[in-house]
Amino acid sequence: MSRIPVLSTKDANLFTRLIYRIARRRYGAVPEPFAVIARHTGLLAAGAVHELAVEKASRTLPVNVRQIASYRVAVRLACSWCVDFGTMLQKHDGLDIERLKHIDEYATSPLFSRQERLALAYADAMTESPVTVTDEQVAELEREFGRKGVVELSYQIALENLRGRLNSALGIPEQGFTSGEACRVPLPGAA
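^ Transposase, sequence as received from the core. Prediction below:
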């Protein structure tokens, strides 16, 4: 249970009920962070618009690179909700989720491509406190993904740091998106 209780549908205003309905349709359940943030309708609206805009705009990097970098941040921050949700997103994108068990060995594991290893090391450097990103690291990423790709990767990693730190501070636990224990999220296109 989170440190701030979720806002129930019966206590929600019309706008929040609409957000909950869209979330249920999209994910099979209302993600608990939405239901906690719903206590501040303005931030719920801002967050929803921001997340949709970022999702729409993030098309430069290969999906596997973007997803694995975000997942790494979730693991580093020990955000169980983010790890659970991130695993589900990778599953829905058709990515190999079994290899996630080996994320800590990414630097030497053949389960991760060169591009993924670069993104994972960058996620580690950006998630350190203080940040340990180097000029050489950014230059190598730029050669691999271009300037637009480096900006997108940096943004995605920073955004996952925001999500993970917010969820951890509010004590939002995993919700069972992967296991189906708390809710059953259908694969895209499934009946």
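Residues 181-191 have pLDDT under 50 and may be disordered.
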